[in-house]
Write a structure and sequence with these properties.
Blueprint: H1 3-11, E1 15-17, E2 27-30, H2 43-48, E3 53-56, E4 67-69, H3 73-88, E5 91-96, H4 101-112, E6 118-120, H5 130-136, E7 144-148, H6 156-164, E8 168-171, H7 179-182, H8 185-192, H9 194-201, E9 205-209, H10 213-219, E10 225-229, E11 236-243, E12 246-251, E13 254-261, H11 266-278, H12 283-292, E14 301-305, E15 308-313, H13 319-331, E16 337-342, H14 351-364, E17 369-373, E18 387-390, H15 393-398, E19 407-411, H16 421-424
Parallel strand pairs: 1-2, 2-3, 3-4, 5-7, 5-8, 6-7, 8-9, 9-10, 10-11, 15-19, 16-17, 16-19, 17-18
Antiparallel strand pairs: 11-12, 12-13, 14-15
Helix pairs in contact: 1-3, 3-5, 4-11, 4-12, 6-9, 11-12, 13-14
GO molecular function: ligase activity
Pathway: Cell wall biogenesis; peptidoglycan biosynthesis
Domain Mur ligase C-terminal: 299-397
Length: 425
């Protein structure tokens, strides 16, 4: 079936779905397969649950005219998403980076929603499946789409750009994330910069951090770039006022108080403000949007529990984000500061060095107690009694002693699931 024919069927459906557990009446179900499962086997179940059509790529599972056979369901999903994006003709803002993608995406969405009908990536559905699903969730009422793009190897962002065809873009930063897949920090820079490469080659607009030397060097001569800075009046000026614990800043002589902790969040707040300004959102509406935004999903959340104040930042971690989180805890004017840290994944040959670096940093900062959890952290060498090491969460749980009247940072990679610590606290 040609993509334009499939598109007409799509327009008669309520939504696109790839998981039979979530199928609703009049959905279009795509039978995507993985390494350990054949998605075609779920097609009939999707139809029984109310799906209007099931898109399959194995003729053996064709049951009726409601099962649409294509050569490859994943490629068809991606082509349909691009076709839909072209038919809508709306503005697409894409963003990527090592840290802060989801928070930045949510801030941009919150700000632009003050003036426009927006559709943004849900959660972190930012890969070769999530990006098409985000595009297909947009409707003819959507005025601006905000698409988060994730990657763990080179050429991935380039591929996602071909699907989403963004008009605007932003890279949060270049950090030590997915070093195993990218082959080192230089690989991270090259891989993330594929977004800027796409935008410059198509004469599209780029937002950037003019205080980041890498970004400034790449973009200062590009005429369709819009930068922000904390000290250079050639760019949109943002002044960080304080971050103890919440970030307060000034833009256009307007003081804005956020609900985000850590001075590292100033860049996320700055670009949301800049993009709002670019799209003619008033500074008062930008202020209201940012001050109403409260982080969720274990991303820099402040949680009060009994006598403890918890910085819950356990959604994910890499050496760059771990370092700034520890520095933020160090800078807090609080008594009895505790860091509970879990292993960082996908670091490849750098894993031992990077975990030791974090252990060394935590040991030397003004933090009263450091708890290291995981197979990588258990191998690190420590210098004094304030550092405690556990091979696993279960090991930590077994030896856990009650923590009270403390300011506690919880951070680790997603696979460590350190949100479980909350139940102990």
């Amino acid at each position: 079936m040609k993509i334009d024919e499939l598109y007409q069927l799509f327009l008669d459906c309520k939504a696109v779905n790839t998981d039979t557990r979530n199928v609703e009446t009049n959905d279009m179900f795509f039978a995507l397969s993985g390494e350990n499962f054949n998605g075609n086997t779920f097609a009939n179940e999707a139809l029984q649950k109310g799906a209007k059509y099931a898109i399959i790529d194995d003729e053996d599972y064709r049951r009726s005219d409601k099962t649409i056979l294509v050569s490859n369901t994943l490629k068809t999903l991606q082509k349909l998403a691009t076709y839909h994006r072209q038919q809508l003709g709306l503005k697409i803002i894409s963003l990527t980076g090592s840290n802060g993608k989801t928070t930045t995406k949510e801030l941009i969405n919150t700000v632009l929603s003050k003036k426009y009908k927006t559709t943004a990536t849900i959660g972190n559905l930012n890969n070769h499946i999530g990006v098409p699903l985000t595009l297909l969730s947009m409707t003819n009422t959507t005025e601006i789409g905000i698409v988060e793009m994730g990657a763990n190897h080179k050429k991935e962002i380039e591929f996602l750009c071909q699907i989403a065809q963004p008009d605007f873009g932003y890279i949060t930063n270049f950090g030590k994330a997915h070093l195993e897949g990218f082959g080192g920090v230089e690989g991270v820079i090259q891989g993330k910069s594929e977004l800027y490469d796409y935008l410059t080659s198509n004469n599209k607009t780029i937002f950037f951090n003019a205080d980041d030397n890498i970004q400034k060097e790449k973009l200062s001569q590009y005429k369709n770039s819009k930068g922000y800075s904390q000290n250079n009046t050639d760019y949109y000026l943002i002044n960080l006022l304080k971050a103890n614990p919440f970030v307060n800043f000034k833009a256009e002589n307007t003081t804005i108080q956020s609900n985000l902790i850590g001075d590292y969040n100033i860049t996320n707040l700055s670009v949301a403000t800049l993009i709002g300004k670019y799209f003619d959102v008033s500074i008062n509406d930008i202020k209201a949007a940012i001050q109403d935004y409260v982080p969720t999903n274990n991303r820099s959340q402040i949680i009060k529990k009994d006598t403890n104040t918890i910085i819950m930042d356990a959604y994910n971690a890499n050496p760059s984000s771990m370092e700034v989180a520890l520095q933020n805890l160090n800078n807090q004017n609080e008594k009895n500061k505790i860091a509970i840290l879990g292993d960082m994944f996908e670091l490849g040959a750098s894993a031992d060095t990077e975990h030791q670096n974090i252990a060394n940093l935590a040991n030397h900062l003004n933090i009263d107690e450091v708890i290291l959890i995981g197979e990588n952290f258990i191998k690190t060498k420590t210098e004094n009694n304030k550092v405690k090491q556990y091979r696993s969460f279960e090991d930590f749980k077994t030896h856990y002693k009650p923590i009270t009247n403390s300011h506690v940072l919880i951070k680790g990679s997603r696979g460590m699931a350190l949100e479980r610590v909350l139940k102990l606290l």
